[in-house]
Amino acid sequence: MAASTPRRVLASWGVLVLATCLSWALGSHHDGHPGAANAATAVTLAIGFGKAHLVGSEFMELRHAPSALRLLFAAWILLVGGTLIGLYVLS
Amino acid sequence: MTVFALFFGAFLYERGREPVVFAASRHELTLAFGVVNTVVLLTSSLLVALAVQSHRAARHRRASRAIGGATLCALAFVMLKAFEWGALLSDHLDPATNHFFAYYFGLTGLHLLHLVLGTAALLLVRRTLRRPAPGRRDRLIVEGGATYWHMVDLLWVVIFPLVYFSST
Fold first, then answer.
1. Which of chain B's residues have a Cβ under 8 Å away from the Cβ of A4?
2. By CA distance, what is B14's nearest residue in A?
3. If chain A, 91 residues long, is cut into consecutive pieces of 10 residues, what is the mean pLDDT of each piece?
4. Is residue B24 less than 8 Å (CB to CB) from chain A?
5. Is the pTM of this model over 0.90?
């Protein structure tokens, strides 16, 4: 697996900032249909957990960690993210 | 992280019980504070990740400068949070106003506490990097401090959409 390099962490930072701008754009529009607004908000939550995974994998260097730790982290992201998005959609 | 996860779940559960209160209260927040603070924290994490790489390459001065930059980002985050809280409190919006603001101040306050501890860890890392010949134990301090800082960032990127968007 490729080692972390300054270029790689810089690219990760770029993706994280772009994802933040995308969330901002999605979360700022509330004039449309309520269903569309709810879907957009669920997407912003999913983006948040995607960003959390990227922070863990690239900045914390978990992608170089033993597979058990990588799986535990992925399970936390999927379990907590899935539960929260489910709570949001169903409530 | 599990405590935060439970806190996140409780926030959304309450939002389901009081959707009108949560939607109205969320509009009292200034979204720009959340966006700028997210970019500030992501930038601090980038600097910390670059510092760890410089440290491994034995470029300790460069690593120390990057940690200094990350510490400035942490101070900027605290200042912006103080402005954000100050604006809300001056409008008489506080934890006792309703459940939304109780969770808002609780979640962001608990995160801020972790951020302040993380800033202390960054200062310790910077001091370690300034030693003439950092050893094995010093490497643990640098990598442990960096990992803690990234956790503070990781929690914030989830708190951001939860607090600023999920009450619509």
1. 49, 53
2. A91
3. 82 98 85 77 95 96 93 95 92 78
4. no
5. yes
